[in-house]
């Protein structure tokens, strides 16, 4: 069934954040973030939604899908929300300066294994359940090629990405006011950091498979051991950049963590929590959070550990496994897969209740 035309009352773009720096060949700007927005004619929701993409991606993740279907942006506009799409600093339409840092990139093999065709590689226990990518998910398939064509090099330093997006995100909220943040994957760290520095302006966070698990990365390696702890990339629990804990950390003090003795179930990773007594994430305690997880994603073994960490730190979190809603077969790219409209409805239903 075709949808009626989407009526837009206002649209445009701007840049926020960034700073000047001096180089031998002149003065330049870096760290600025490109933001484009649309406001529907039939706006029924007071709070706008700000959408951040994950690693190697841009605001295009939400503008449509690689097989030509409507994206999250259109769904939320039709639901009455003003929508702001962001390109991370030093990525896509947010200009990169060489002095800002080295860039890294995702190969087709990595994208196929993690995002578009995990059932072929079977690197984590749930990967074989993946059915929702719109195409074969391998290089040479037209849908994959459209998706991969919009992949961008990213700053290699994850802590630097977090600092730049925290600062640019705060500048964005200073301009537009209170908002709902929608994050995905890598940008999950940005949601916690932006809310930490602007708690009065972040009214809710929707975290689609946010960067995790806590403390250590996950290394997926296939059967029989499946997953193991990788690098300790999140010394602040959920982030590399500092978060505000209560009681506060003293000068030179670091958080202390303990790992679960046993996992919560088959096919799941043992999680990391703070050693008790746990400090609270004091600036996030008034921010409702929704964490959404796909059935077949590489996040399936550990997103519940991110939820447990947030709850231990006093953050109000709802956790929705899409399979529990009868939504099956999803990998990590929830906003692009065949049932993205069903997933968007899960989010709008939750937002209507907070």
Structure description:
- The chain has helices spanning 60-63, 72-78, 108-116, 118-121, 142-149, 158-176, 188-197, 303-312, 340-351; strands at 8-23, 26-40, 49-51, 83-87, 103-104, 154-155, 179-185, 202-210, 218-222, 226-229, 245-246, 257-259, 272-274, 280-281, 289-293, 317-321.
- The mean pLDDT is 97.
- It has an eight-stranded mixed β-sheet, with helices on both faces. A two-stranded antiparallel sheet has the order 5-6. A two-stranded antiparallel ribbon has the order 9-10.
- Helix content is 23%, strand content 25%.
- With 354 residues, it is α/β, with parallel strands linked by helices.
- Helix 6 crosses helix 7 (188-197).
CATH architecture: 3-Layer(aba) Sandwich
Total domain count:
1
Rg calc: 20 Å
From N to C, what is the helix and strand string?
Answer: EEEHHEEHHHEHEHEEEEEEEEHEH
Any idea of the CATH class? Alpha Beta
Global geometry: globular
The total of helices stands at: 9
- The span between the termini is 31 Å
Number of strands: 16
Major sheet: 8 strands, mixed
The proportion of residues forming helix, as a percent range, comes to 10-25%
At CATH level 3, the topology is Rossmann fold
Biggest sheet, spatial arrangement of strands? 1-2-4-3-7-8-15-16
Mean pLDDT, all residues = 97
Low-confidence stretches: none
Oligomer: single chain
Structural class: alpha/beta
Percent in strands = 15-25%
Q: So, the CATH homologous superfamily?
A: Alpha/Beta hydrolase fold, catalytic domain
